[in-house]
Amino acid sequence: MVCHIPFFFRNSYDSDNTTFSPQGKLFQVEYALEAVKQGSAAIGLRSKNHAVLLTLKRSTGELATYQKKLIRIDDHVGVAIAGLTSDARVLSNFMRQQAMRSRMTFGRAIPVGRIVQSIADRAQTNTQEYGRRPYGVGFLVIGQDETGPHLYEFSPSGTAFEYYAHSIGARSQSAKTYLEKNFESFEDAPLAELINHGLSALHDTLQQDKSLSLHNTSIAIIGPPDAEIENLAQSAAAKRGNFRVWENEGVEELLKAWRRSRGEPEDGPQEEQPAAQPSAEQAQSAEGSENAPAGAPAGGEDVTMEEQ
Amino acid sequence: MWKQPSPANSSFNEFNTFPLPQTQRGQSSHAHHGPVGHTQQPLVTGTSVLGLKYEGGVMIAADNLASYGSLARFRDIQRLHPLGKHTLLGVAGDMSDFQWLKKELDALLREEDALALTDSHPSLSPKNIYELLSNLFYARRSKMNPVWNAVLVGGWDKVKQESFLAYVDLLGTTYTAPTLATGFGAHLAQPLLREAYEAKAGIDGNGPLLTKEEAEKVLEDCMKVLFYRDARSLNKYQIATITSEGVSISDSKSADTYWKFAEGLRGYGAQTQ
Protein backbone atom coordinates (compact mmCIF):
# COMPACT_ATOMS: atom_id res chain seq x y z
CA MET A 1 0.00 0.00 0.00
CA VAL A 2 1.34 3.37 -0.97
CA CYS A 3 1.20 5.92 1.77
CA HIS A 4 0.16 9.32 0.49
CA ILE A 5 2.22 12.14 1.95
CA PRO A 6 0.69 15.62 1.69
CA PHE A 7 2.91 17.95 -0.38
CA PHE A 8 3.50 20.40 2.48
CA PHE A 9 5.33 17.74 4.47
CA ARG A 10 8.33 18.34 2.29
CA ASN A 11 10.58 16.73 4.75
CA SER A 12 9.76 14.57 7.72
CA TYR A 13 13.00 15.43 9.48
CA ASP A 14 12.59 19.17 9.66
CA SER A 15 10.06 19.65 12.41
CA ASP A 16 12.33 18.43 15.20
CA ASN A 17 15.67 20.05 15.51
CA THR A 18 17.23 17.23 17.46
CA THR A 19 16.63 14.43 14.97
CA PHE A 20 19.11 13.73 12.21
CA SER A 21 17.90 13.13 8.69
CA PRO A 22 19.25 9.96 7.01
CA GLN A 23 21.63 12.26 5.15
CA GLY A 24 23.12 13.38 8.47
CA LYS A 25 21.57 16.82 8.52
CA LEU A 26 19.74 18.72 11.23
CA PHE A 27 17.26 20.62 9.10
CA GLN A 28 16.25 23.16 11.73
CA VAL A 29 19.87 24.15 12.05
CA GLU A 30 20.17 24.52 8.29
CA TYR A 31 17.06 26.69 8.25
CA ALA A 32 18.54 28.84 11.01
CA LEU A 33 21.59 29.34 8.83
CA GLU A 34 19.20 30.45 6.08
CA ALA A 35 17.75 33.04 8.45
CA VAL A 36 21.24 34.50 8.78
CA LYS A 37 21.49 34.74 5.00
CA GLN A 38 18.21 36.68 4.92
CA GLY A 39 19.71 39.44 7.05
CA SER A 40 21.55 42.26 5.36
CA ALA A 41 25.31 41.93 4.97
CA ALA A 42 27.88 42.41 7.71
CA ILE A 43 31.61 42.40 7.10
CA GLY A 44 34.55 42.14 9.47
CA LEU A 45 38.27 42.62 8.93
CA ARG A 46 41.30 42.58 11.15
CA SER A 47 44.79 44.01 11.03
CA LYS A 48 47.52 43.59 13.63
CA ASN A 49 46.27 46.73 15.43
CA HIS A 50 42.61 47.05 14.54
CA ALA A 51 39.41 45.14 14.00
CA VAL A 52 36.52 46.71 12.09
CA LEU A 53 32.94 45.81 11.29
CA LEU A 54 30.93 47.24 8.41
CA THR A 55 27.22 46.71 7.98
CA LEU A 56 24.56 47.51 5.46
CA LYS A 57 21.50 48.81 7.27
CA ARG A 58 18.01 48.21 5.94
CA SER A 59 14.87 50.18 6.57
CA THR A 60 11.54 48.39 6.62
CA GLY A 61 9.84 51.20 4.75
CA GLU A 62 9.73 54.86 3.83
CA LEU A 63 8.59 55.90 7.30
CA ALA A 64 10.99 53.67 9.24
CA THR A 65 14.51 54.38 10.38
CA TYR A 66 17.35 52.13 9.28
CA GLN A 67 17.73 49.18 11.64
CA LYS A 68 20.92 49.23 13.70
CA LYS A 69 23.11 46.21 13.17
CA LEU A 70 26.04 47.04 15.43
CA ILE A 71 25.83 46.41 19.18
CA ARG A 72 28.37 47.45 21.78
CA ILE A 73 28.95 44.73 24.36
CA ASP A 74 31.71 46.33 26.41
CA ASP A 75 34.54 48.81 25.89
CA HIS A 76 36.54 46.10 24.19
CA VAL A 77 33.89 44.00 22.43
CA GLY A 78 31.16 44.69 19.88
CA VAL A 79 29.10 42.69 17.42
CA ALA A 80 27.48 42.99 14.01
CA ILE A 81 24.31 40.99 13.51
CA ALA A 82 22.62 39.32 10.57
CA GLY A 83 19.30 37.54 10.99
CA LEU A 84 16.57 37.80 13.60
CA THR A 85 17.06 41.03 15.55
CA SER A 86 15.17 39.77 18.58
CA ASP A 87 17.38 36.70 18.92
CA ALA A 88 20.37 39.01 18.61
CA ARG A 89 19.07 41.05 21.51
CA VAL A 90 18.85 38.00 23.75
CA LEU A 91 22.37 36.89 22.89
CA SER A 92 23.93 40.34 23.11
CA ASN A 93 22.35 40.90 26.52
CA PHE A 94 23.88 37.63 27.65
CA MET A 95 27.26 38.72 26.30
CA ARG A 96 26.95 42.02 28.17
CA GLN A 97 26.27 40.10 31.38
CA GLN A 98 29.32 37.92 30.84
CA ALA A 99 31.48 40.96 30.17
CA MET A 100 30.25 42.71 33.32
CA ARG A 101 30.66 39.59 35.41
CA SER A 102 34.31 39.32 34.43
CA ARG A 103 34.93 43.00 35.19
CA MET A 104 33.21 42.75 38.57
CA THR A 105 34.71 39.52 39.88
CA PHE A 106 38.21 39.66 38.42
CA GLY A 107 38.61 43.31 37.46
CA ARG A 108 39.48 41.97 34.04
CA ALA A 109 38.00 42.61 30.60
CA ILE A 110 36.75 39.23 29.42
CA PRO A 111 38.98 37.59 26.77
CA VAL A 112 37.22 37.90 23.40
CA GLY A 113 37.44 34.24 22.45
CA ARG A 114 35.76 33.24 25.70
CA ILE A 115 32.77 35.53 25.40
CA VAL A 116 32.17 34.24 21.87
CA GLN A 117 32.53 30.65 23.04
CA SER A 118 29.95 31.30 25.75
CA ILE A 119 27.23 32.13 23.21
CA ALA A 120 28.35 29.36 20.90
CA ASP A 121 27.86 26.91 23.76
CA ARG A 122 24.31 28.23 24.27
CA ALA A 123 23.58 27.87 20.57
CA GLN A 124 24.92 24.32 20.57
CA THR A 125 22.57 23.39 23.42
CA ASN A 126 19.69 24.46 21.22
CA THR A 127 20.69 21.92 18.61
CA GLN A 128 20.75 19.02 21.04
CA GLU A 129 17.84 19.51 23.42
CA TYR A 130 14.32 18.54 22.49
CA GLY A 131 11.72 21.29 22.29
CA ARG A 132 14.09 24.12 21.57
CA ARG A 133 14.93 26.01 18.41
CA PRO A 134 18.25 27.29 17.16
CA TYR A 135 18.94 31.02 17.25
CA GLY A 136 18.09 32.67 13.94
CA VAL A 137 20.99 35.07 14.02
CA GLY A 138 24.68 35.13 13.18
CA PHE A 139 27.28 37.48 14.67
CA LEU A 140 30.55 38.90 13.61
CA VAL A 141 32.34 39.76 16.86
CA ILE A 142 35.30 42.12 17.11
CA GLY A 143 37.27 42.75 20.25
CA GLN A 144 40.67 43.31 21.73
CA ASP A 145 42.30 41.70 24.73
CA GLU A 146 45.77 40.95 26.03
CA THR A 147 46.46 38.94 22.87
CA GLY A 148 45.53 41.79 20.51
CA PRO A 149 42.57 42.46 18.19
CA HIS A 150 40.28 39.63 17.12
CA LEU A 151 37.48 38.87 14.68
CA TYR A 152 35.15 35.92 15.29
CA GLU A 153 32.10 34.55 13.55
CA PHE A 154 29.33 33.09 15.66
CA SER A 155 26.72 30.97 13.88
CA PRO A 156 23.47 29.36 15.07
CA SER A 157 24.96 25.93 14.48
CA GLY A 158 26.97 26.53 17.65
CA THR A 159 30.34 27.24 16.10
CA ALA A 160 32.70 30.13 16.76
CA PHE A 161 35.65 30.53 14.41
CA GLU A 162 38.30 33.21 14.29
CA TYR A 163 38.97 34.96 10.98
CA TYR A 164 41.30 37.48 9.35
CA ALA A 165 38.27 38.72 7.39
CA HIS A 166 34.76 37.42 7.01
CA SER A 167 31.27 38.32 5.85
CA ILE A 168 27.78 37.11 6.69
CA GLY A 169 24.25 37.93 5.55
CA ALA A 170 22.59 38.61 2.21
CA ARG A 171 24.89 38.49 -0.84
CA SER A 172 27.85 38.10 1.47
CA GLN A 173 29.52 35.71 -1.00
CA SER A 174 30.40 38.70 -3.19
CA ALA A 175 32.10 40.38 -0.24
CA LYS A 176 33.87 37.14 0.60
CA THR A 177 35.26 36.97 -2.91
CA TYR A 178 36.67 40.49 -2.51
CA LEU A 179 38.12 39.70 0.92
CA GLU A 180 39.71 36.47 -0.24
CA LYS A 181 41.41 38.37 -3.06
CA ASN A 182 42.80 41.05 -0.74
CA PHE A 183 43.18 39.65 2.79
CA GLU A 184 46.94 39.21 2.64
CA SER A 185 47.41 42.98 2.79
CA PHE A 186 45.14 43.42 5.82
CA GLU A 187 47.64 42.41 8.51
CA ASP A 188 49.84 45.48 8.03
CA ALA A 189 47.14 47.81 6.73
CA PRO A 190 46.60 51.14 8.51
CA LEU A 191 43.07 51.78 9.80
CA ALA A 192 41.99 53.96 6.85
CA GLU A 193 43.05 51.29 4.38
CA LEU A 194 41.32 48.54 6.35
CA ILE A 195 38.07 50.51 6.30
CA ASN A 196 38.40 51.17 2.57
CA HIS A 197 38.82 47.45 1.94
CA GLY A 198 35.78 46.83 4.12
CA LEU A 199 33.67 49.38 2.25
CA SER A 200 34.74 47.94 -1.09
CA ALA A 201 33.69 44.49 0.10
CA LEU A 202 30.41 45.88 1.42
CA HIS A 203 29.85 47.68 -1.87
CA ASP A 204 30.10 44.34 -3.67
CA THR A 205 27.10 43.02 -1.72
CA LEU A 206 24.84 45.76 -3.09
CA GLN A 207 22.29 45.26 -5.81
CA GLN A 208 23.13 46.84 -9.10
CA ASP A 209 21.11 50.05 -8.60
CA LYS A 210 22.09 50.69 -4.96
CA SER A 211 25.05 52.47 -3.46
CA LEU A 212 26.61 53.01 -0.06
CA SER A 213 25.36 56.16 1.66
CA LEU A 214 25.53 57.71 5.11
CA HIS A 215 22.03 56.32 5.69
CA ASN A 216 22.71 52.66 5.01
CA THR A 217 26.35 52.29 6.07
CA SER A 218 27.64 51.91 9.59
CA ILE A 219 31.17 51.15 10.70
CA ALA A 220 32.51 49.96 14.03
CA ILE A 221 36.16 50.14 14.99
CA ILE A 222 38.30 48.73 17.78
CA GLY A 223 41.90 49.81 18.19
CA PRO A 224 43.96 53.01 18.33
CA PRO A 225 42.17 56.03 16.79
CA ASP A 226 43.19 57.74 13.56
CA ALA A 227 42.52 61.49 13.83
CA GLU A 228 42.77 61.81 10.04
CA ILE A 229 39.54 59.94 9.48
CA GLU A 230 37.82 59.91 12.87
CA ASN A 231 36.24 62.87 14.63
CA LEU A 232 37.84 62.37 18.03
CA ALA A 233 36.04 65.37 19.54
CA GLN A 234 32.83 63.46 19.03
CA SER A 235 33.82 60.15 20.55
CA ALA A 236 35.56 59.50 23.86
CA ALA A 237 35.52 55.79 22.98
CA ALA A 238 37.54 56.52 19.85
CA LYS A 239 40.11 58.52 21.85
CA ARG A 240 40.62 55.52 24.12
CA GLY A 241 40.72 53.01 21.27
CA ASN A 242 37.50 51.40 22.54
CA PHE A 243 34.61 50.03 20.48
CA ARG A 244 32.95 52.89 18.57
CA VAL A 245 30.34 53.09 15.86
CA TRP A 246 30.34 55.61 13.03
CA GLU A 247 27.03 56.05 11.25
CA ASN A 248 24.82 58.72 9.69
CA GLU A 249 26.76 62.04 9.56
CA GLY A 250 29.60 60.36 11.45
CA VAL A 251 30.30 57.95 8.60
CA GLU A 252 30.31 60.60 5.88
CA GLU A 253 34.02 61.38 6.03
CA LEU A 254 34.88 57.70 5.95
CA LEU A 255 32.72 57.22 2.87
CA LYS A 256 34.27 60.25 1.17
CA ALA A 257 37.77 59.00 1.86
CA TRP A 258 36.81 55.63 0.41
CA ARG A 259 35.36 57.18 -2.77
CA ARG A 260 38.48 59.31 -3.21
CA SER A 261 40.62 56.18 -2.89
CA ARG A 262 38.65 54.64 -5.75
CA GLY A 263 38.96 57.77 -7.89
CA GLU A 264 35.24 58.41 -7.69
CA PRO A 265 33.51 61.73 -7.06
CA GLU A 266 33.77 62.40 -3.34
CA ASP A 267 30.04 62.95 -2.87
CA GLY A 268 29.16 59.66 -4.50
CA PRO A 269 26.28 58.89 -6.80
CA GLN A 270 23.52 61.33 -5.84
CA GLU A 271 20.62 59.00 -5.33
CA GLU A 272 18.49 59.64 -2.25
CA GLN A 273 17.60 63.31 -1.76
CA PRO A 274 19.01 64.91 -4.90
CA ALA A 275 17.58 62.11 -7.00
CA ALA A 276 14.19 62.38 -5.34
CA GLN A 277 13.91 66.11 -5.97
CA PRO A 278 14.38 66.20 -9.76
CA SER A 279 12.15 63.20 -10.29
CA ALA A 280 9.45 64.79 -8.17
CA GLU A 281 9.76 67.96 -10.20
CA GLN A 282 9.64 65.96 -13.36
CA ALA A 283 6.52 64.23 -12.19
CA GLN A 284 4.94 67.55 -11.27
CA SER A 285 5.78 69.19 -14.54
CA ALA A 286 4.59 66.09 -16.28
CA GLU A 287 1.34 66.30 -14.36
CA GLY A 288 1.09 69.97 -15.21
CA SER A 289 1.45 69.30 -18.91
CA GLU A 290 -0.94 66.39 -18.50
CA ASN A 291 0.92 64.12 -20.84
CA ALA A 292 2.81 61.88 -18.46
CA PRO A 293 3.33 58.42 -19.92
CA ALA A 294 2.56 55.54 -17.55
CA GLY A 295 6.14 54.35 -17.34
CA ALA A 296 7.64 57.77 -16.77
CA PRO A 297 8.26 57.86 -13.01
CA ALA A 298 10.10 54.56 -12.90
CA GLY A 299 11.96 55.28 -16.09
CA GLY A 300 12.73 58.76 -14.87
CA GLU A 301 14.26 57.47 -11.64
CA ASP A 302 16.46 55.10 -13.49
CA VAL A 303 17.58 57.80 -15.86
CA THR A 304 18.49 60.25 -13.10
CA MET A 305 20.50 57.50 -11.41
CA GLU A 306 22.34 56.71 -14.60
CA GLU A 307 23.11 60.33 -15.17
CA GLN A 308 24.75 60.86 -11.84
CA MET B 1 45.51 36.51 67.72
CA TRP B 2 42.90 33.99 66.56
CA LYS B 3 41.75 33.30 70.17
CA GLN B 4 40.98 30.02 71.86
CA PRO B 5 38.43 27.55 70.63
CA SER B 6 35.40 28.32 72.80
CA PRO B 7 33.26 25.59 74.39
CA ALA B 8 30.52 24.17 72.22
CA ASN B 9 27.77 25.37 74.57
CA SER B 10 29.07 28.93 74.76
CA SER B 11 26.37 31.46 73.93
CA PHE B 12 28.72 34.44 74.03
CA ASN B 13 30.58 35.07 70.82
CA GLU B 14 33.71 37.15 71.08
CA PHE B 15 33.82 37.91 67.35
CA ASN B 16 30.32 39.34 67.57
CA THR B 17 28.95 37.29 64.69
CA PHE B 18 25.45 37.61 66.10
CA PRO B 19 22.89 35.97 65.87
CA LEU B 20 24.18 32.49 66.50
CA PRO B 21 22.62 29.87 64.25
CA GLN B 22 19.98 27.80 65.96
CA THR B 23 18.48 24.51 65.04
CA GLN B 24 14.80 25.06 64.53
CA ARG B 25 12.58 22.07 64.95
CA GLY B 26 9.69 21.46 62.61
CA GLN B 27 10.99 23.63 59.77
CA SER B 28 10.67 21.46 56.72
CA SER B 29 13.68 22.83 54.83
CA HIS B 30 15.88 22.27 57.84
CA ALA B 31 14.35 18.88 58.49
CA HIS B 32 15.52 17.78 55.07
CA HIS B 33 18.92 19.35 55.00
CA GLY B 34 19.79 19.83 58.64
CA PRO B 35 20.70 23.22 60.07
CA VAL B 36 23.04 25.45 58.11
CA GLY B 37 26.43 25.53 59.76
CA HIS B 38 28.52 28.68 59.64
CA THR B 39 32.05 29.10 60.89
CA GLN B 40 31.71 30.72 64.30
CA GLN B 41 35.33 30.65 65.28
CA PRO B 42 38.55 29.40 63.83
CA LEU B 43 39.82 26.08 65.20
CA VAL B 44 43.20 25.17 63.76
CA THR B 45 44.96 28.45 63.09
CA GLY B 46 48.08 29.85 61.52
CA THR B 47 49.62 33.05 62.83
CA SER B 48 51.42 35.99 61.19
CA VAL B 49 52.28 36.31 57.50
CA LEU B 50 54.80 38.96 56.43
CA GLY B 51 55.18 40.57 53.02
CA LEU B 52 57.86 42.89 51.67
CA LYS B 53 58.55 44.41 48.26
CA TYR B 54 62.20 44.44 47.23
CA GLU B 55 64.27 45.16 44.17
CA GLY B 56 62.81 43.01 41.39
CA GLY B 57 60.05 41.28 43.31
CA VAL B 58 58.20 40.59 46.50
CA MET B 59 58.87 38.24 49.44
CA ILE B 60 56.33 36.57 51.67
CA ALA B 61 57.15 34.72 54.90
CA ALA B 62 55.08 32.50 57.17
CA ASP B 63 55.95 29.87 59.77
CA ASN B 64 55.02 26.17 59.58
CA LEU B 65 52.75 26.00 62.60
CA ALA B 66 49.04 25.27 62.72
CA SER B 67 47.89 25.72 66.32
CA TYR B 68 44.86 24.17 67.99
CA GLY B 69 44.11 26.94 70.40
CA SER B 70 47.33 27.39 72.38
CA LEU B 71 48.51 23.87 71.51
CA ALA B 72 51.22 23.75 68.84
CA ARG B 73 49.32 20.94 67.13
CA PHE B 74 50.69 20.69 63.54
CA ARG B 75 54.30 21.74 63.11
CA ASP B 76 54.91 21.04 59.45
CA ILE B 77 52.21 23.02 57.64
CA GLN B 78 53.01 25.13 54.60
CA ARG B 79 51.01 28.36 54.67
CA LEU B 80 52.41 29.70 51.40
CA HIS B 81 50.44 28.65 48.33
CA PRO B 82 51.42 29.42 44.74
CA LEU B 83 48.64 30.17 42.21
CA GLY B 84 49.84 29.96 38.64
CA LYS B 85 53.25 31.23 37.66
CA HIS B 86 53.24 34.73 39.16
CA THR B 87 51.01 34.75 42.24
CA LEU B 88 51.37 33.46 45.78
CA LEU B 89 49.11 33.52 48.81
CA GLY B 90 50.34 33.68 52.37
CA VAL B 91 47.51 32.66 54.65
CA ALA B 92 46.84 33.21 58.35
CA GLY B 93 43.75 32.17 60.30
CA ASP B 94 41.66 29.04 59.97
CA MET B 95 43.61 26.28 58.27
CA SER B 96 40.55 24.33 57.08
CA ASP B 97 39.21 27.46 55.38
CA PHE B 98 42.68 27.84 53.87
CA GLN B 99 42.49 24.29 52.51
CA TRP B 100 39.07 25.02 51.03
CA LEU B 101 40.40 28.24 49.52
CA LYS B 102 43.30 26.35 47.95
CA LYS B 103 40.93 23.81 46.45
CA GLU B 104 38.64 26.45 44.96
CA LEU B 105 41.40 28.63 43.55
CA ASP B 106 43.33 25.69 42.14
CA ALA B 107 40.15 24.54 40.39
CA LEU B 108 39.62 28.02 38.96
CA LEU B 109 43.17 28.22 37.68
CA ARG B 110 42.92 24.76 36.17
CA GLU B 111 39.84 25.89 34.29
CA GLU B 112 41.69 29.00 33.13
CA ASP B 113 44.57 26.86 31.90
CA ALA B 114 42.14 24.66 29.97
CA LEU B 115 40.61 27.71 28.29
CA ALA B 116 44.06 29.08 27.53
CA LEU B 117 44.73 25.94 25.50
CA THR B 118 42.30 27.23 22.88
CA ASP B 119 42.85 31.00 22.98
CA SER B 120 46.38 31.34 24.44
CA HIS B 121 45.13 34.20 26.61
CA PRO B 122 47.38 34.94 29.60
CA SER B 123 46.11 33.54 32.89
CA LEU B 124 44.67 35.60 35.75
CA SER B 125 47.12 38.22 37.00
CA PRO B 126 47.86 38.71 40.73
CA LYS B 127 45.54 41.74 40.59
CA ASN B 128 42.72 39.61 39.13
CA ILE B 129 43.13 36.94 41.81
CA TYR B 130 43.22 39.58 44.54
CA GLU B 131 40.05 41.19 43.17
CA LEU B 132 38.32 37.81 43.25
CA LEU B 133 39.49 37.11 46.80
CA SER B 134 38.32 40.48 48.13
CA ASN B 135 34.91 39.97 46.48
CA LEU B 136 34.71 36.46 47.90
CA PHE B 137 35.71 37.47 51.45
CA TYR B 138 33.30 40.40 51.51
CA ALA B 139 30.44 38.34 50.08
CA ARG B 140 30.98 35.62 52.65
CA ARG B 141 31.18 37.96 55.62
CA SER B 142 27.96 39.57 54.35
CA LYS B 143 26.30 36.15 54.57
CA MET B 144 27.47 35.92 58.18
CA ASN B 145 29.67 33.04 57.08
CA PRO B 146 33.18 34.45 56.83
CA VAL B 147 36.17 32.73 55.28
CA TRP B 148 38.20 32.96 58.47
CA ASN B 149 41.53 34.06 57.10
CA ALA B 150 43.80 37.02 56.61
CA VAL B 151 45.64 36.71 53.31
CA LEU B 152 48.62 38.39 51.73
CA VAL B 153 48.68 38.21 47.95
CA GLY B 154 52.12 38.60 46.45
CA GLY B 155 52.78 38.59 42.75
CA TRP B 156 54.48 39.91 39.67
CA ASP B 157 52.45 42.00 37.23
CA LYS B 158 53.72 40.99 33.81
CA VAL B 159 52.00 43.88 32.01
CA LYS B 160 53.23 46.70 34.28
CA GLN B 161 56.50 44.87 35.00
CA GLU B 162 56.21 45.55 38.73
CA SER B 163 55.66 43.62 41.94
CA PHE B 164 52.26 43.29 43.60
CA LEU B 165 51.48 43.02 47.30
CA ALA B 166 48.08 43.36 48.96
CA TYR B 167 46.06 42.31 52.01
CA VAL B 168 42.53 41.00 52.38
CA ASP B 169 40.85 39.49 55.46
CA LEU B 170 37.70 37.78 56.70
CA LEU B 171 35.81 41.08 56.83
CA GLY B 172 36.61 41.89 53.22
CA THR B 173 38.98 44.65 54.36
CA THR B 174 41.52 45.40 51.66
CA TYR B 175 44.66 47.47 51.50
CA THR B 176 48.00 47.53 49.80
CA ALA B 177 51.45 48.72 50.85
CA PRO B 178 55.11 47.94 50.11
CA THR B 179 55.32 46.15 53.46
CA LEU B 180 52.44 44.17 54.97
CA ALA B 181 51.79 41.84 57.89
CA THR B 182 48.82 39.97 59.30
CA GLY B 183 47.86 39.32 62.92
CA PHE B 184 50.54 39.79 65.57
CA GLY B 185 52.95 40.57 62.78
CA ALA B 186 51.02 43.77 62.10
CA HIS B 187 52.02 44.93 65.58
CA LEU B 188 55.45 43.35 66.02
CA ALA B 189 56.96 43.05 62.55
CA GLN B 190 55.33 45.77 60.45
CA PRO B 191 57.23 48.61 62.21
CA LEU B 192 60.51 46.78 61.61
CA LEU B 193 59.64 46.10 57.97
CA ARG B 194 58.67 49.74 57.41
CA GLU B 195 61.82 50.98 59.09
CA ALA B 196 64.01 48.86 56.85
CA TYR B 197 62.01 49.71 53.72
CA GLU B 198 61.93 53.45 54.37
CA ALA B 199 65.62 53.58 55.29
CA LYS B 200 66.41 53.07 51.59
CA ALA B 201 63.24 53.94 49.70
CA GLY B 202 62.20 56.91 51.87
CA ILE B 203 58.68 57.60 53.12
CA ASP B 204 57.38 58.20 49.60
CA GLY B 205 59.03 55.01 48.36
CA ASN B 206 60.86 56.83 45.56
CA GLY B 207 64.32 55.73 46.57
CA PRO B 208 65.96 52.39 45.82
CA LEU B 209 64.31 49.25 47.17
CA LEU B 210 66.01 46.69 49.39
CA THR B 211 68.15 44.14 47.64
CA LYS B 212 67.19 40.49 47.76
CA GLU B 213 69.76 39.79 50.49
CA GLU B 214 68.67 42.78 52.58
CA ALA B 215 64.99 41.86 52.26
CA GLU B 216 65.69 38.28 53.32
CA LYS B 217 67.69 39.51 56.31
CA VAL B 218 64.87 41.82 57.46
CA LEU B 219 62.29 39.06 57.14
CA GLU B 220 64.46 36.64 59.09
CA ASP B 221 64.89 39.22 61.85
CA CYS B 222 61.13 39.76 61.94
CA MET B 223 60.39 36.04 62.08
CA LYS B 224 62.81 35.78 64.99
CA VAL B 225 61.12 38.65 66.86
CA LEU B 226 57.76 36.99 66.24
CA PHE B 227 59.05 33.70 67.57
CA TYR B 228 60.32 35.41 70.72
CA ARG B 229 57.13 37.34 71.41
CA ASP B 230 54.20 35.54 69.72
CA ALA B 231 53.31 32.45 71.75
CA ARG B 232 51.46 30.96 68.70
CA SER B 233 54.53 31.01 66.46
CA LEU B 234 57.21 28.50 65.59
CA ASN B 235 60.90 28.85 64.82
CA LYS B 236 60.46 27.05 61.54
CA TYR B 237 59.35 29.11 58.58
CA GLN B 238 59.49 29.50 54.82
CA ILE B 239 60.11 32.51 52.63
CA ALA B 240 58.66 32.76 49.14
CA THR B 241 60.02 35.08 46.46
CA ILE B 242 57.94 36.14 43.47
CA THR B 243 59.77 37.79 40.58
CA SER B 244 59.37 38.07 36.81
CA GLU B 245 60.94 34.61 36.75
CA GLY B 246 58.10 33.14 38.79
CA VAL B 247 57.46 31.86 42.29
CA SER B 248 60.00 30.04 44.45
CA ILE B 249 59.39 28.84 47.97
CA SER B 250 62.32 28.15 50.26
CA ASP B 251 62.75 25.02 52.35
CA SER B 252 61.82 25.42 56.00
CA LYS B 253 64.46 27.21 58.03
CA SER B 254 64.91 28.52 61.54
CA ALA B 255 66.52 31.56 63.11
CA ASP B 256 69.35 31.36 65.62
CA THR B 257 67.87 32.22 68.99
CA TYR B 258 69.40 33.12 72.28
CA TRP B 259 67.76 32.12 75.55
CA LYS B 260 70.50 32.67 78.08
CA PHE B 261 68.70 35.75 79.42
CA ALA B 262 65.73 33.56 80.36
CA GLU B 263 67.56 32.29 83.40
CA GLY B 264 67.32 35.74 84.94
CA LEU B 265 63.61 36.17 84.30
CA ARG B 266 61.34 36.10 87.33
CA GLY B 267 57.60 36.01 87.60
CA TYR B 268 56.67 33.43 84.95
CA GLY B 269 56.09 29.72 85.52
CA ALA B 270 57.15 27.64 88.47
CA GLN B 271 59.98 29.12 90.44
CA THR B 272 61.58 27.89 93.56
CA GLN B 273 63.17 31.16 94.56
Automatic annotation (TrEMBL), chain A:
Start and end residues of each Proteasome alpha-type subunits domain: 13-35
Any one Pfam family match given in the protein's UniProt record, by short name: Proteasome
GO terms classed as biological process: ubiquitin-dependent protein catabolic process
Region (Disordered): 257-308
Subcellular location: Cytoplasm; Nucleus
Keyword Nucleus attributed: yes
Keyword field contains Plastid: no
InterPro entries: Ntn_hydrolases_N (IPR029055), Proteasome_alpha (IPR050115), Proteasome_alpha-type (IPR023332), Proteasome_alpha1 (IPR035144), Proteasome_asu_N (IPR000426), Proteasome_sua/b (IPR001353)
Record key words, sorted: Cytoplasm, Nucleus, Proteasome
PANTHER family in alphabetical order: PROTEASOME SUBUNIT ALPHA/BETA
Protein name as it appears in the record: Proteasome alpha-type subunits domain-containing protein
Species of provenance: Kwoniella europaea PYCC6329
From TrEMBL, chain B:
UniProt entry keywords in alphabetical sequence: Cytoplasm, Nucleus, Proteasome
Cellular localisation: Cytoplasm; Nucleus
Pfam families in UniProt: Proteasome (PF00227)
Domain of life, per lineage: Eukaryota
GO biological processes: proteolysis involved in protein catabolic process
Keyword hit for Nucleus: yes
GO cellular component: cytoplasm; nucleus; proteasome core complex, beta-subunit complex
Function: Non-catalytic component of the proteasome.
PANTHER family according to UniProt: METALLOPROTEASE TLDD (PTHR32194), PROTEASOME SUBUNIT BETA (PTHR32194:SF6)
Family: Belongs to the peptidase T1B family.
The protein's name in its UniProt record: Proteasome subunit beta
Species the sequence originates in: Kwoniella europaea PYCC6329
